[in-house]
Amino acid sequence: MTTAMLVSILMTLIAASTPLLLAALGELVAEKAGVLNLGVEGMMLCGAVAGFAVAFSSGSTALGLVAALLAGVAAAMIFAVLALSLGANQVATGLALTIFGIGASSLIGAGFVGRTVQRLGPVFPAALSEHPVLRVVFGQDILVYLSLALVAGVAYVLRRTRAGLILRAVGENDASAHAIGYPVIAIRYAAVAFGGALAGLGGAYFSLALTPMWADRLTAGRGWIALALVVFSAWKPGRLLLGAYLFGAVMTLELQAKAAGVAWLAPEVLAMAPYLATIAVLTMMSLGRKTGRLDAPACLGKPFSAS
Amino acid sequence: MTSIITRRRLTFGAAAASTLPILGRGASAQAPLGVGFIYVGPIGDHGYSWTHDQGRLALEKEYGAKVKTSFIENVAEGPDAARALRQLAQAGNQLIFATSFGFMNPTIQVAKQFPKIKFEHATGYMRAENVATYDARFYEGRAVIGTIAGHMSKTGQAGYVASFPIPEVVMGINAFHLAARKVNPNFKTKVVWCSTWYDPAKEADAAKALIDQGADMITQHTDSPAPLQAAEQRGVYAFGQASDMRSFAPKAHLSAIVDDWSGYYIKRVKEVMDGSWKSGAVWGGIKDGFVKLAPYNDAVTPEARKAADEVTQAIASGKLHPFTGELKDQKGEVRVKAGETATDEMLSKMDWYVDGIQA
């Protein structure tokens, strides 16, 4: 294998992992606050279509990213009103949000089929971003760097700051958090909005960076992988980063192995690998504990009412 | 048993009765003919399902108020398709097009329950009194783009982004490769199976993997324009699938195989209207207008252009069959003898690859 090929594979791998990382990190924060939002796929699609529509109409990819973020938040707010304010079942509401997102994005996107926009470009100047080797580090777009910075940021806030402590308290024991005066519902709204924003950006990564176009169901189920990653990571940002890149690596290597004609390993085995890894990690985690709760926030998925 | 049958009849009776007042069927000869479609993908895929929907729109344009078309998109291949077909049948459609290979068994099954409704199944091989099949000889188009690839490739290697190893796809790969090998005897075609018809990000990554392995011509048998975009990004050439996809990759897009179903749909609807519709199997190619080539990119060399035009004309006039012997599979076994051509029967069951293909 040549260096050029290795660099190229790494570039593909990073690009495949980034939307998973963004969407999963947002969901991690929402779940840390005790909210299980299964609507990730729907929010990603809303972000993808809004990002594309605005980038196409305005000619500005940056505006597209802002629109994607806002669309993700807007979709998340639908969920929040139903599940948090009105106490609807979170699983059912989240699933409904995904189905809604598929339909709404298809409706909005109908006029944009067959169009394309400028691909989201690298941040650094060409001398660095087109260097044959250094482009692995410097040739990435803004969302790659943002996703990595956010992992560090979320890890720091959750573990080291008072705000993170309050967020976790709301997710672990909502009644106690309420009793000592924290606005449980408001905090959960904020966490869900953050999740929606990142899911929107993750979706826009498809329509603006990976495949700069709009086509129905563009994300093709990546939202569900993001949800699985949160469990895989045991709600820890560092491990989420590892998991997202592991999934990205396996998805990329599966195709590379096929293209290289690797015959000794059936490609189907590689395609199964991330899911096998998920099962293995979950099993190992539950073996070490008596509770079998896998570190899930104690109030995950439970509705809260202040009365 | 009896009670079940009776109940089923009752249900159907009720369904028919309930649609009667709405459609006014039988009340007047002016009632529009209901024509239903089910698609495997979204019509927004700008690929295979989109081309079928273009055929549906052509019907509306041709017949205006005389037809009433409806469609269901994103129908999963398998049992779900039976539900979608039944829904269209019960809604009063007289002619129903099931447009993907995996709808075959459900179509036969539902057609038995609605003997008066005509069904048309694309790319399959099971027929009945009220089920006809139709298909396009896409492999003829693939022979043309294979010719262009053979002329234009510098590395002598093409990457093929494929969906599933069904005969339809396998014959496309062989036709492409055979045509390219005719130009360049050392030509190699590498295939990556995506195990999906539609997953833009995965299709793009598959194309990138093939380019990493040395392919400078990308062609595909999946439904989205994503592989073309990957080719454009990496500065290699590619061919569009099902429709003209030039807008996605103005530099990379050399040509495309364009499906055109509208002529067939218009003809079959007319036959239902005048009562001459009969079950049968139609397999149309370049000659019949089912398969067309998108305009060549300026980058296509005069030499490649000339060769491609010659192949197109030879196929249309019947002088050239893309599968002319002698053809050997990868084990060296002769599949088509020298001087003979592959029969349609052989093509529709093709499960072997010619030498030089890595699948």
From TrEMBL, chain A:
Record-linked CDD domains: TM_PBP1_transp_TpRbsC_like
Domain of life of the source: Bacteria
Protein name: ABC transporter permease
Transmembrane segments: 6-26, 38-56, 62-84, 91-113, 133-158, 179-206, 272-288
Membrane disposition: Multi-pass membrane protein
Subcellular location: Cell membrane
One Pfam short name: BPD_transp_2
InterPro entries associated with the record: ABC_transp_permease (IPR001851)
PANTHER family linked: ABC TRANSPORTER PERMEASE PROTEIN, SUGAR ABC TRANSPORTER INTEGRAL MEMBRANE PROTEIN-RELATED
Key words, A-Z: Cell membrane, Membrane, Transmembrane, Transmembrane helix
Claim: Ubl conjugation is one of the keywords in the record: no
Automatic annotation (TrEMBL), chain B:
UniProt entry tagged with the keyword Signal: yes
Alphabetized UniProt keyword annotations: Signal
Keyword Repeat attached: no
Domain of life: Bacteria
Domain ABC transporter substrate-binding protein PnrA-like: 35-315
Cross-referenced Pfam families: Bmp
The protein, known as: BMP family ABC transporter substrate-binding protein
